[in-house]
Amino acid sequence: MDGWIIKNSFNKSLGAKFPPSYPNEMLVKLCSSRRYSVLTKSLFLKKNIKVCEIGYLSGNNLRFFLDKKWKTYGVEINKELLDLAKKNLKRFKQKVYSLKIGNNEDLPYNKNYFDLFVSINTIHYSSGSKIDKAIAEYARVLKKNGVAIIETPSPKHDAIKNSIKKKDNLWLWKWGGFRNNKMIGFFDNKKKLQKKLEIFFSEVEINERSEDYKGIKLYWYVAVCKK
To answer: In what order do the strands lie in the sheet with 203-213?
Structure first.
């Protein structure tokens, strides 16, 4: 999405010295224990796993994959964010196998390339019919039996509550910030998300997680999809 720059990656006025540097908690759980999903079983049986994250921002999730010694790749929308991740990971003496510029609908990798593909709060930056193109791209770059982990806000999230629905997967963001008045591809219920993912994946599980930060209600769907 237009507007994503280093300035938006973290807020120094709130005390942040560095951009996000720790991984998504649910992602860690899904990739560290079989108890959270039956579909991630393959991740515990393979060696030399190739993983790619779309929308890696400062590389906080990439850091987790690098710690696991997985072959780690990433896609971001511009060079500014690519350089941000490189600089942030350098603090931890880590170097990603490959970082490239692309977007949800145009991933710069060959088909059947990855064992795991990760999209944390990124899929909804494709809206309307572009959602289908994005999910198709996620599936395209995965190997047979590969896994995609996709997180996106659920209807209880304040971002959706404060946005205006035009039609399915087409919402006008009204929650302020650089996204204001942009079109966003939110899902207004789990059934619609499940149905959309099942077009491109053989098996789909959808869980939910939440956070409450200073009165702000944050809720997400977390989908685990097997190709």
So the answer is: 98-101, 71-76, 50-54, 114-120, 142-153, 216-226, 203-213
Q: What is the pTM of this model?
A: 0.92
| Cα distance between residue 67 and residue 211, in whole Å | 26
Per CATH, is 20-155+188-226 categorized as 3.40.50.150?
yes
Ramachandran assignment for 10, one of left (phi > 0), alpha (psi -120 to 50 degrees), beta (any other): beta
What's the token pair of residue 107? Answer: 């991933």
The structure tokens listed for 202 are 């053989």
- pLDDT per residue as tens, the chain (227 positions): 555 455 555 455 544 455 667 899 999 999 999 999 999 988 998 889 999 999 999 999 999 999 999 999 999 999 999 999 999 999 888 888 899 999 999 999 999 999 999 999 999 999 999 999 999 999 999 999 999 999 999 999 999 999 999 999 999 999 988 899 999 999 999 999 999 999 999 999 999 999 887 778 899 999 999 99
The residues pairing with 73 across neighbouring beta strands, listed in sequence order, are: 52, 98
